[in-house]
Write a structure and sequence with these properties.
4-stranded antiparallel beta sheet; 32% helix; rod-shaped; 10 strands; alpha+beta; 154 residues; 2 domains; OB fold (Dihydrolipoamide Acetyltransferase, E2P)
C-alpha cells in the first residue's frame, strides 16, 4: 500500500469521530487508531475515587444512615410502574401529542403509559398493573435507570 494513500486515510479520519479504522487490501493491511486524552481521564477518574472511599470506616456509617432515610421514601410509594431499561423518559409519543397518561387517569394492564428511548429505539412501556395514576415520578425528557419507578398507581 502506498504511503500517499495511508496519509490520505489519516487526514480523512482526523476530521471524523471515528477512533479506530482497519483496511485490508489483498496482502496489505493498515490499522489506524486515534488516542483521545479526555476519554482516558474520564475512564480513570471513577476507578480511583471508590478505592479511596471504600476502605474508610467513616464511609460505612453515612451509608448505614442513608439507607433508612431512603427506605421511608420508597415505602411511601404505593404500587409503581418501573422502567424496564435505562434510557430517556418521554410522556408522549411525539412532542406535539398529548401525554399517554395523566394523574387521576385509570389504566389497565397493557395500556401504554410512556416511552423510554434506549439506543435510538423508542420502547413503549405498558402498565403491568391496573389502577389509577396517583403520581408521575419522572419529568419528560429526563434520564431513567433500570427498575426506577416512573408512576405511582393506587
Amino acid at each position: 500500500m502506498e504511503i500517499k494513500k495511508i496519509k490520505e486515510l489519516i487526514e480523512l479520519l482526523s476530521d471524523t469521530d471515528i477512533t479506530e479504522f482497519e483496511l485490508n487490501e489483498g496482502d496489505d493491511s493498515v490499522k489506524i487508531s486515534k488516542h483521545n486524552p479526555n476519554a482516558t481521564v474520564i475512564a480513570s477518574a471513577p476507578m480511583v475515587a471508590p478505592q479511596a472511599v471504600a476502605p474508610a470506616p467513616v464511609a460505612s456509617a453515612p451509608v448505614a444512615e442513608a439507607a433508612p432515610a431512603a427506605a421511608p421514601a420508597e415505602a411511601s410509594l404505593g404500587r409503581t410502574i418501573n422502567s424496564p431499561m435505562v434510557g430517556t423518559f418521554y410522556a408522549a409519543p411525539s412532542p406535539d401529542a398529548d401525554d399517554f397518561v395523566k394523574v387521576g387517569q385509570k389504566v389497565k394492564v397493557g395500556d401504554a403509559v410512556c416511552i423510554v428511548e434506549a439506543m435510538k429505539m423508542f420502547n413503549k412501556i405498558e402498565a403491568d398493573a391496573e389502577g389509577i395514576i396517583k403520581q408521575i415520578l419522572v419529568a419528560d425528557g429526563e434520564p431513567v435507570e433500570f427498575d426506577q419507578p416512573l408512576f405511582e398507581i393506587e
